[in-house]
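Q: Is it fine to ask for two folds in a single conversation?
A: Yes, each is treated on its own. Send the first.
Q: Here.
A: Result:
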Amino acid sequence: MPPHINEQPSTVGSLNEAKVAVALESSFLGFFAHAGFINSLLDSGIRPLKVSGSSSGALVASAYASGLEHEALKEFVLDRKLQRAFREWRILLRGPAVFGAYLGHGIIAGHRAVAHLRRTLPVDRIEKTRNAHLGIGVTNVTRQERQLIHEGDLASFIVASCAAAPIISSQEIDGEYYLDGGFTDGAPFEQWIHDDEIDIIIIHRIICNPPRVKKWSRFTNFISCWSALHNVVTNELNQVRREKAEAAGKKVIVHETATRSPGLIVSKQHSIDNYQTAYDTWKNSPSIT
């Protein structure tokens, strides 16, 4: 995929009048930027009827769909308790087991994150969302397939979509195991290609600024490996799907936000900066002028 794409640019008027669906692409700790993007859409008069996402995209898509928007959505992603919910004291025991003894595949179980999301999100079930119809992208390792989940326990499937081994362990839900949706479907939007209720599909993806351009070697860390694999799968899927969507008469806008790359722990100011960057980038986008 080229570094920046806005396919078939539209006007504010047509976007406001159109039936819009939004897919939020997976991105390591990208929920700050995704939230800024969603709020910028809303402030420009665009209310997505349907949303989907994988990993961090699933988190923000779920928050918006469940009823959080504007300041409430911003406070949700900037709340330091959200990041802390993905930290567990047991990583001190799990870490050596996972990386030293090859026992298990995640140093974080995810239970605290599920509990936090159950406390803070307005609804408990995916099918009960208020603002938009929701789809959460996951990788079902029990069935060995990618899936888009439209019903079930909201908090559990959000964490399942974020379960990137070896950081977060696979999540067991109703007897099946799930991993990060971004591994197999970074930006789920195929479900809208032949959907008569949708006119325009907007895909939001987050890229690093400056870009991560590193010489590959045996010392390259696993996060760079994830990123490379994610890009290969997502770019090829998106290209094929865009072609199908255009053939079906859909308008597709791929909007990119370039943010500073986050570390394993993101400072409050860094979080605010990434949120604001995404907000401003859509506000000033040629897609809405």
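Q: Second one now.
A: Result:
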Amino acid sequence: MDYRDAFRVALDKVRGEGRYRVFADLKRHRGDFPRATWTRGDGTTAEVVVWCSNDYLGQGQNPVVLDAMQRALEEAGAGSGGTRNISGTTHYHVELERELADLHGKEAALLFTSGYVSNEATLSTLFKILPGLIVFSDALNHNSMISGIRLGPKAQRRVFRHNDLEHLEELLREAPADAPKLIAFESVYSMDGDIADLPATVALAKKYGAMTYLDEVHAVGMYGPRGAGVAERDGVMGEIDIVEGTLGKAFGVMGGYIAADAVIVDAIRSYADGFIFTTSLPPALAAGAAASIRWLKDHNEVRVAHQARAATLKARFAQAGLPVMASASHIVPVLVGDAHHCKLISDILLSDHGVYVQPINYPTVPKGTERLRFTPSPGHTDAMMDDLVAAMEALWVRCNVARMGGIAA
């Protein structure tokens, strides 16, 4: 039997649906974000502007962050030496967890190797610690949250319609009053750019005796006076039981974490396989993340500039008649509605206009809602926006994409 045939068939299926992903070979320019050098398949290069990075604030280029990483590399070397339980706990990890706990006003924090791992490991572990736990999950929660929840018993999972608190309350009301409960949701939903009603969700949790688990990965660093997220902005951070975040987006480095009461964090640390059996982050990454968090706590002007840039791009797209989707956050999605057209526009933007933005398609978003997802940063200038909008206007005609709704004609 030639097992490779099955893999070829699987790839042909993805290609046929227009959602085969091609990685762009990019090298960012230190100190010149969002510019980068793109290396084509034939080895030639071109200069491009990156419009889809999750390094939302350009912190991956902040000299304060880079200096901290360089010092840690010189002081401690490259790797951490193992898992946290064996030899992989360094002073850099301890300092970073203290910074994270302080950021969120919690007693403790716990580092993971990525935001995906922190969600999957923590949510799956809660089923071990709370027998009979029922998890109420927003329908548009990230795959990492869904993966963690699916590791629990099927009978103990409830999915409520996206941001539909009436449906959530209906499910809470139907659940046994004495069963432990957890509401798992996000603050900023990264594909549509909408934001959950945190105060109302917290109120429901209190009414029905449920814990709250809030994913703030697309909000930490960017919302609130010190960058602790939407929970800080909306004044409910102290009422969220477990906050989960990432170090790989606005903080510009890598890693994931949770912050909560010390007893919760200690229990997750003691039971979570995704923490116990994984080599810890290199010291340089931990040092860079800590420096980034400290810096952003004191520089709210960067958050203000970031929101202004996002608002400007939304307005520019709307003025040009492009189908920019409604977004209450810094995310600027433009609907295309067809996988083939979405990929075609992305390819032409890169090859002909020096604009790098990846197509977003199934399974990240439902079929028929394919889009381009722009993430303007404080480093994106008016001139860059001029070039982008002009290119988008031209391509919407060239690629035969109807402006009304963005559906391929």
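Q: Anything structural to flag on that second result?
A: Two points. Residues 402-409 have pLDDT under 50 and may be disordered. The first helix runs from residue 4 to 16.
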